[in-house]
């Protein structure tokens, strides 16, 4: 049975995660502090530690929460829905910027998000291979297998995000992604 206290705790945790995302977007992970997040939500740093015992725990929770916003059962992803996701991301630059900055930082040894992103990309590549397989079968028109093409699909999505963040007036992220889908080729009837 969910109690009022548990509901309030979950709401407070969600509020902290939103504030953490904002602070990380503004300052980067390394520049973000627990005290800045605590101040933003009207808590002491000690009060924040009740919800997240470490800065690293808070970071991973922020990343997991962000992924939940885009979550869809694996079996329901299709190429046209991926294009819709790119459209959606083009409307939320702050989230894309935070995600991209954390991804960039995570490639360094000992970064607290490295394990998260490593596991995430294993799952994303497998999911994209499944999307491509359901769309094209065992071979794309180019002859590549879905497993060989999946990392390329992910690289295009992420690479377009970086280019768009740096020059949104010059890079039409949704349009460029749809152009890439055209390059994949027509599926066989």
UniProtKB/TrEMBL annotation:
Residues 10-70 form the HTH tetR-type domain. Residues 33-52 bind DNA. InterPro entries: BetI_C, Homeodomain-like_sf, HTH-type_TetR-like_transc_reg, HTH_TetR, Tet_transcr_reg_TetR-rel_C_sf. Keywords: DNA-binding, Repressor, Transcription, Transcription regulation. It comes from the Bacteria. This is TetR/AcrR family transcriptional regulator.
């Amino acid at each position: 049975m969910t109690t009022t206290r548990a509901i309030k705790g979950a709401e407070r945790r969600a509020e902290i995660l939103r504030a953490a995302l904002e602070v990380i977007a503004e300052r980067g992970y390394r520049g973000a502090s627990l005290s800045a997040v605590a101040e933003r939500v009207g808590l002491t740093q000690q009060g924040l530690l009740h919800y997240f015992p470490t800065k690293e725990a808070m970071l991973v929770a922020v990343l997991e929460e962000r992924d939940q916003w885009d979550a869809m059962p694996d079996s329901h992803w299709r190429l046209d829905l991926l294009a819709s996701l790119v459209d959606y991301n083009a409307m939320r630059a702050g989230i894309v910027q935070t995600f991209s900055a954390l991804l960039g930082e995570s490639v360094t040894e000992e970064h607290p998000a490295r394990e998260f992103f490593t596991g995430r990309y294993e799952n994303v590549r497998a999911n994209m291979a499944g999307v491509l397989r359901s769309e094209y079968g065992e071979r794309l028109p180019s002859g590549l297998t879905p497993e060989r093409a999946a990392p390329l699909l992910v690289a295009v999505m992420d690479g377009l995000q970086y280019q768009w963040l740096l020059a949104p007036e010059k890079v039409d992220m949704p349009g460029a992604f749809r152009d890439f889908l055209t390059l994949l080729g027509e599926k066989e009837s």
